[in-house]
Each structure stands twice: as C-alpha cells, then as structure tokens.
Amino acid sequence: MKRIVLVRHGEAEHTQEGLTGGWTESHLTTLGEQQAHVTGGRLAKMLGDVEYTLYSSDLARASETARIVCGQLGIKPVFDGDLREFNNGQAANMTWEQAQAIQNPPTQPLVDYVPYPGAENWRQMNERVSGCMARVEGECPDTAVIITHTLSGVAVVNWWLQLDADAWGRISCDFDPGSITLLTINQFGQRTISRLNDTRHLAAADCESKTEALPGVKA
C-alpha cells in the first residue's frame, strides 16, 4: 500500500450535547454534514485517477460521513466495526458528569488503563485497529481512504509508522472534525506523515468546528 488518506468524521451531536464519545451513537450535526460534503469534494480533487477503496467505521457519525463523501466520489464505502472509536463501555451515551462518576482511577502503564467498566484499554483498541489495517493493506495495493475517529485515527497513524502499542504512553495526534491526514511513503522508502489534521478545505468553505470535546476520557 502506497498511501492512506485518513479522515475524521464531521462534527457530531454528542459534542454539542455534553455526551461522551467512544461508542456513543451520535449523528452528524448540520455543520458536520456540510463538512462531509466539503471534505468529499476535496478528496475527489486529491485522488483524481488514483486506484483506491474507502473504508469507514460503522458508528453513525462516521458512516454518515462516509455516505456523504462517497456520494461526492461516486463509490460505495466498506464499513468495518474494527475502525470504531475507543470502546468506552458503560460510559457510552452518558454525559461527562455521569461518566466521571463511574470512571476507574488511572493506572500505569497508560496503554493498559481501562477507564470505565466494560471498556477496552488502549492496547486492545490498538490491536483491533491494527488488525483491520493489516487486512486493508492486503486488499489495497495503492491507496486506502479511512474514515474514522480521533483515538482510532491515532491507532491508524501508529500502525502506519510501525510503532508498538507502548507508544500510546508517549505520543498522540489531534484530529479535528472533517480533517484530512495523508500518510505516504517518501522517495527514501520511509513511512511519512505528509499532512496532519489538515482543515484548510473547511476553512475555505467557512465550516470549521468552533468547539470540540475530547472523545475519550475527560482530563
């Protein structure tokens, strides 16, 4: 696989309603739908005649983004539950205040911390997403477009850079709604982050999100 075009879903209702992210089933806001349309148009120009397949998380906010984007691209998405956001267990669909009441005390190493009852830890999510990306690599000789979330997006970047799960305790990435991240192989054969959290296409259309809550554990 030569490159990955990584897209975060558009703005979702849970961020406006004070709910946790993770496996909360949250639909796109009106702005999120606009971001998906604009992002789809940008991808159409970026991809041109490149051979690619588009994969998406099956959570509502990602799948809705994928369908809008694919409408711009004239293709059908492939939905994969292994691209879902971090599984936050019993905290799904709760407000931040409710989730904080059931949050487990932090433990080290961070990668093995289970923040809520029934949740996965970061190592488990990393293994889940990495397994998906290994399958994608076998299916896409050229380019994969991946529509996912923030923490699962970090897992995609870590997989691309061939970092082990323990990297979760040291480094991370930020992804804004509708952003595009481009992962490529450069002329030296190195795996490269060519573009990270790019929202210029949204800024040009005046549809960047103004506020955004973290999708995982609230600090």
Name a few traits of the molecule.
alpha/beta; Rossmann fold; 36% helix
Description:
The chain is an alpha/beta fold and 219 residues long. The protein has a single domain (3-204), classed as 3-Layer(aba) Sandwich (Rossmann fold), CATH 3.40.50. It has helices spanning 13-17, 30-47, 60-73, 96-102, 122-139, 150-160, 200-204, and strands at 3-8, 52-56, 78-79, 143-148, 180-185, 191-198. Strands 3-2-4-1-5-6 form a six-stranded mixed sheet, sandwiched between helices. Helix 3 (60-73) links the parallel strand 2 (52-56) and strand 3.
> What is the averaged pLDDT score?
94
Biggest sheet, spatial arrangement of strands:
3-2-4-1-5-6
Order of helices and strands: EHHEHEHHEHEEH
Query: Could you give a short account of the major beta sheet?
Result: 6 strands, mixed
Number of domains: 1
CATH architecture title? 3-Layer(aba) Sandwich
CATH C-level category: Alpha Beta
Distance between the termini: 36 Å
Explain the layout of strands and helices:
Layout: E1 3-8, H1 13-17, H2 30-47, E2 52-56, H3 60-73, E3 78-79, H4 96-102, H5 122-139, E4 143-148, H6 150-160, E5 180-185, E6 191-198, H7 200-204
Parallel strand pairs: 1-4, 2-3, 2-4
Antiparallel strand pairs: 1-5, 5-6
Précis, in short:
It contains seven helices and six strands. The protein is of the alpha/beta class and about 220 residues long.
